[in-house]
């Protein structure tokens, strides 16, 4: 087993399923991977278990990693016992948040049916979430001019309107947006603006 896990390694370590949310801002993650059993996801969603799930409550109030069996929080809806009936008998939760982008948190919840996760597996999963959290960090090299143009794109302004407001040529606006798209790895101006907004940059 390598120390740099990939998606296939995650499935191997947590064969009963996993859920990963990367860079959660005010409401939604920038990237979400839901590989939990489909029937469980349907029940979980229909019953709005997220509001009561002790694992979710743990990841939103901690940094680090823990086995589900070590979470000392109330489970009034008996969510963890119900998860066992879907093959998720043992689990581990991993959470991280960085100080530079307040409020941006990433976490993962991983499950097995056969045994508890061992310490090495937990360390590897924690390293994976930390690495993915870091990889999804917002770029630090966008200029104020680029962010200003993206903010206007987000607000629905057209190139001509942006150029007029900024007192520059349309060509200058296009160049700012081109640079911003490259830095954000976006294909269009609106996509770049949406990403910048998700990152809390605009």
SSE arrangement:
Blueprint: H1 7-13, E1 17-24, E2 29-34, H2 38-46, H3 54-59, E3 64-67, H4 79-84, E4 90-97, E5 105-112, H5 119-135, H6 144-154, H7 159-166, H8 170-184, H9 189-198
Antiparallel strand pairs: 1-2, 1-5, 3-4, 4-5
Helix pairs in contact: 6-8, 6-9, 7-8, 8-9
Folded structure, characterized:
By secondary structure, this protein is α+β, with helices and mostly antiparallel strands. The chain contains nine helices and five strands. The chain has helices at residues 7-13, 38-46, 54-59, 79-84, 119-135, 144-154, 159-166, 170-184, 189-198, and strands at 17-24, 29-34, 64-67, 90-97, 105-112. A five-stranded antiparallel sheet has the order 2-1-5-4-3. Helix 6 (144-154) crosses helix 8 (170-184) and helix 6 crosses helix 9 (189-198). It is elongated and about 65 Å long. The two termini are 41 Å apart. The mean pLDDT is 92.
Quote the distance from N terminus to C terminus: 41 Å
Low-confidence runs of at least 5 consecutive residues:
none
The helix-strand sequence is HEEHHEHEEHHHHH
- Give the CA-based shape: elongated
The proportion of residues forming helix, as a percent range, comes to: 40-55%
Q: Whole-number average pLDDT?
A: 92
How many β strands by DSSP?
Answer: 5
Largest sheet: 5 strands, antiparallel
Main attributes?
9 helices, 202 residues, five-stranded antiparallel beta sheet, elongated, alpha+beta
Give a brief description.
This protein has 202 residues and is an alpha+beta fold. Helix content is 44%, strand content 17%.
